[in-house]
Design goal:
Blueprint (H helix, E strand, L loop, with lengths): L4 H4 L9 H41 L13 H5 L20 E6 L8 E6 L3
Antiparallel strand pairs: 1-2
Length: 119
Amino acid sequence: MTDTSETVLSTLEPPPGGLAGLRARIARDARRRVAVRRLQVAAVATLVVALVTWAGVGWRGQQDTLPAEFDLVRMHLGLLDVPSEPLTIPAEQRIHTAVRRVPLATDQVVFYLVGSIQD
């Protein structure tokens, strides 16, 4: 074999600023990575707190969509009259609701097409 020790190992130039400059850049990059990681953790924590707060407060603001005169348990116990039609709309909702019965071949099944405007 031929001796090619000169091509196996090449000589590297020193880094700009010397060894002290290289160490300073490495330390600066490490601090930057730590700062970015802290910022990411803070952003995720803020997002989690916001979602938990929204979930906790937002659900309490929901109103019951079924009026009290349509309480099925009270109807079953005989405390309320059962509506004469399968679909009954409260008087205050009739302005915002449109209903059309879908004609079918049998009267055993009743379908309604219901459209409403939510405030």
